[in-house]
Design brief:
Layout (H helix, E strand, L loop, with lengths): L25 H9 L4 E5 L2 E4 H17 L8 E5 L4 H12 L3 E5 L5 H11 L3 E5 L3 H4 L1 H4 L7 E5 L24 H4 L7 E3 H6 L14 E3 L2 E2 L7 E2 L2 E2 H14 L7 E4 L6 H14 L2 E4 L5 H11 L3 E4 L1 H9 L13 E4 L6 H9 L3 E8 L4 E5 L12 E2 L4 E5 L13 E6 L11 H7 E4 L2 E12 L5 E6 L4 E3 L2 E3 L1 H8 L5 E11 L3 E10 L9 H11 L8 E4 L13 H9 L2
Parallel strand pairs: 1-13, 3-4, 3-5, 5-6, 6-7, 12-13, 12-14, 14-15, 15-16, 27-28
Antiparallel strand pairs: 1-2, 8-11, 9-10, 16-17, 17-18, 19-20, 20-22, 21-22, 22-23, 24-25, 26-27
Helix pairs in contact: 1-2, 2-3, 9-10
């Protein structure tokens, strides 16, 4: 860690952490022993205690080993929305000494096939509505999958609730007849698997064994599996929980998707480690989020800026008592200044951070109490991070733009079965392994990092470099703009020009024209940066983790 970070280090925190030398599953044993009757999960008013969670995790692990033949090092696919089953299955896979492969539930059949083939997994745990996408790989001649365990969200809606349920949670309880799979021996029901009460063999995985393989799309080609060990995952769990001084008595809102590393660590693995209670939602709903904050006195909420924008755009947000909420934290994109200020006016601090699938969540965080706006923060425990020239890999001068590289205990071990991509991503510098992030940033005199953009996203307008993320932040200052995504458009004269895809706030729709946004932008930013084209959209497409799909929008524009 650079000496320049030290004056801004969180008060009373050590510079380095002593990390546990255990399997991640051991956290289940610890919290279930410490807090057996304490609620771990609240799911639309259904409560699951730590001891209940442990019991169901062991039963599923026993089934995986005994009936599915899962053994140490096997990859097991996990394919569902946020629900108690996701967390139970995640830890059951670990207790069976296997490796979790989480899949975005928005992926369809052809995409699922890539994960099956690439990971070599033979077992899949999924939710009822997604079975149709897996069916071809159970019944086909290829027989890519050996066993599929199917769950129903409704199985964990065990009490009446007045909370509104997403449509996907309204499906009937699982039955083989209802699933149309009564004659297929490759399909097992979640409830049947737990009812058998099989117990697993000994836990034989340690800190250096593979733990989870989240897939990352990168910029080209098929998604790649990021190999994380129990030690790398534990590093960001301990780092994040220590940074924010998390406690067992915290109640957190978990709505970021847990297949994604931020939701996985801040919404699931971190709370289990500290013994905190989570209020779990399957889908984002701004009214429901506010209602749960009021009902359960939620104190912290991990999210991304697009969620915050939507949350504050709710005309009814003032009707809820959200005074218990003291902190929101997240990343993905920079938080617009006006939104961050509005939160502060409500007594809520938004703490930005930075991380990747390759670092299993944060490598940088803003110090609580010393946060800078639209800032990635400073490197956390044990992390060395540099800004380098993308071509020479030499460190650039302070304040100059370059590629972020990271070395630390949370950096992944490489891409699964892809040594070429691993060699490009992981470099040796002075005997220490660094990850090339592909992200452009600059570091200020205090050692804080500020994102500029993705290396591959730059727009070249008449030789001027335009970073879309910078233009987007400026556009958010316009009072009528709710969301914005900046892409490149073809231009006969400039080669490329700047185009803004904009969602207008409801109260301004029909009152603001595209030309007015263009004129406003021309006065607010340098001529070469200002959008020459503006297109209004009803909504911007987002990934399962809530990030705006700029690549999809760019590809659509490039075809025109």
């Amino acid at each position: 860690m650079s000496q320049r970070h030290l004056p801004f280090w969180p008060d009373k925190l050590p510079r380095q952490l002593t990390l546990p030398k255990t399997s991640l599953y051991y956290n289940v044993e610890v919290s279930a022993t410490r807090y057996p009757d304490k609620t771990f999960i609240r799911y639309y008013d259904t409560q699951i205690t730590f001891s209940q969670f442990k019991d169901e995790t062991l039963a599923l692990a026993g089934y995986l080993e005994t009936k599915c033949g899962v053994k140490k090092g096997d990859r097991v696919l996990l394919y569902m929305q946020n629900c108690p089953q996701f967390i139970i299955a995640y830890y059951a896979i670990l207790r069976a000494n296997a490796v979790v492969v989480p899949i975005n539930p928005m992926n369809l059949g052809g995409e699922l096939k890539h994960y099956i083939l690439d990971s070599g997994a033979r077992t899949l745990i999924l939710s009822q509505e997604l079975l149709q996408h897996a069916a071809p790989y159970i019944d086909s001649d290829e027989k890519l999958l050996g066993t599929v365990i199917v769950s129903s969200y409704k199985d964990y809606l065990r009490v009446d609730t007045d909370l509104p349920l997403p449509d996907s949670l309204k499906v009937s309880k699982e039955t083989k007849e209802g699933l149309g799979q009564s004659a297929n021996p490759g399909v097992a029901l979640w409830s049947d698997a737990l009812d058998e009460q099989l117990q697993p063999g000994p836990l034989i995985t340690g800190p250096q064994d593979l733990c989870v393989m989240p897939y990352t799309s990168g910029t080209t080609g098929n998604p790649k599996g990021c190999m994380h060990t129990h030690a790398t995952v534990m590093a960001t769990i301990c780092g994040g929980e220590s940074w924010f001084s998390s406690k067992a008595d915290d109640t957190r809102l978990t709505v970021l998707p847990m297949f994604h590393v931020t939701g996985m660590q801040s919404g699931m693995n971190g709370p289990l480690y500290t013994g905190s209670t989570i209020v779990l939602l399957s889908r984002w709903d701004r009214d429901l989020a506010a209602k749960c904050i009021e009902r359960y006195k939620i104190s912290t909420f991990s999210c991304i800026p697009t969620m915050v924008v939507d949350f504050l755009a709710n005309p009814r947000v003032g009707e809820y008592d959200i005074s218990s909420l003291k902190r929101m934290n997240g990343g993905g994109t920079a938080m617009p200044h006006a939104i961050a200020q509005k939160l502060l006016d409500m007594g809520i601090t938004f703490v930005e951070g930075y991380g990747l699938s390759e670092t299993i969540a944060p490598s940088h965080l803003n110090p609580p109490g010393r946060a800078k706006k639209q800032c990635l923060g400073i490197p956390i425990f044990g992390v060395e991070s540099l800004v380098v020239d993308p071509l020479t890999l030499e460190e650039v001068e302070n304040g100059e733009i370059g590629e972020v590289i990271i070395s630390g205990p949370q950096v992944f071990k490489g891409y699964w079965n892809n040594p070429e991509a691993s060699a490009q991503a992981l470099i040796n510098r002075g005997g220490r392994i660094f990850l090339r992030t592909g992200d452009l940033a600059k570091e200020d005199v205090d050692g804080y990092f500020f994102m500029v953009d993705r290396l591959k996203r730059m727009i070249n307008a008449s030789g001027f470099k335009v970073w879309p993320a910078e233009v987007e932040l400026m556009l958010y200052k316009h009072p009528a703009i709710q969301e914005a995504c900046v892409i490149s458009a073809k231009d006969q004269y400039r080669g490329e020009t700047v185009k803004a895809l904009v969602v207008i706030k409801e109260q301004f729709r029909g009152q603001v024209k595209e030309a007015q946004i263009i004129d406003w932008a021309a006065k607010e930013m340098a001529t070469y940066k200002a959008p020459k084209l503006v297109e209004f959209m009803d909504h911007l497409p987002k990934s399962g983790s809530g990030k705006i799909l700029w690549r999809q929008l760019q590809e659509g524009e490039s075809k025109n």
